[in-house]
Every structure is written in structure tokens, then in C-alpha cells.
Amino acid sequence: MGLNDFTKIPNGVNGIEDRMGIAWERGVYRAKIDPMKFVSITSSMAAKIFNIYPRKGRIAIGSDADVAIDYNVYEGQVIHGIAETTISRGKVVWTKNQLQTTPGSGKFIPLLPFSPIAYASHEQRAQVMIVCKIPVDGDYHKPSF
């Protein structure tokens, strides 16, 4: 549905929690990218875009150490590298299909707007797109290509 007509695409799809496993399968397992590139694309770069790196998107001393390891709901599809455990701020919060959190253990992280990693290229693109007027001899009625 929606393959040839995007207006037929349903409003959303379940399974967003499984997209990391699908991305691993299509990228790393099929040797199109290495595990380090996978982490960069799915975690580090996302955190940089949201302007919360290195607090998020990195496993290191001083970072929150949020790691998602989950299972797959796509019955019958073989996926390698599927998450089974989630670690938040250094503590296991989901494992063996059991949630292990206490109410109020989450933490709000305010985000600053206009991350340089996302907007630097936008600014450069804007500079390139500045219209340059070139005088034209005669009447201009149609493109010259």
C-alpha cells in the first residue's frame, strides 16, 4: 500500500522500536556499513543534530550511558543484532521482557535549538543559493537550455 502512490500510505506504522534491528540487518549484517558507522548514524549523529551530544549518543564516562537492547515484533523475519536490554543512565531498565524502573526515574533534558551539526550545512546551502543577476541581451522569453 502506498508503493506507487504516497497518498495511500497509512498514517503511521507500528514497530518503530524495531527499526534499529532492521537497520542493523540491512546495513551491518549485510556488510554495507560497519558497526561503528551504524552507531554514528543512529546514535552519535542523532544526538549531535538534537544538540545533546556527548551527553547522549555516546557510551563514555560523563555521558548518560543510555543503551537500548530490544526484541523484534516482525514475526518470521530473521534479524541479527537485535536489542534485548535497555540501559538508561548506567542502570538496566528493561531486560528479559521486564520493565525495571521506578516512577519518576526518567529525566527531562532541555534541548537547545539550531544545532550546528544540522544547521551549518543549511547556512552554507543558503549562501550558494543566493541569486546572482546576470544581464541578458534582448528579450528573455524562455530558458536557454
TrEMBL record:
GO terms for cellular component: cytosol. GO terms for biological process: pyrimidine nucleobase catabolic process. Residues 24-93 form the Amidohydrolase-related domain. Gene3D superfamilies: Metal-dependent hydrolases. It comes from the Eukaryota. One of its GO terms (molecular function) is dihydropyrimidinase activity. Pfam families: Amidohydro_1 (PF01979). Belongs to the metallo-dependent hydrolases superfamily. Hydantoinase/dihydropyrimidinase family. This is Amidohydrolase-related domain-containing protein. It comes from Cylicostephanus goldi (Nematode worm).
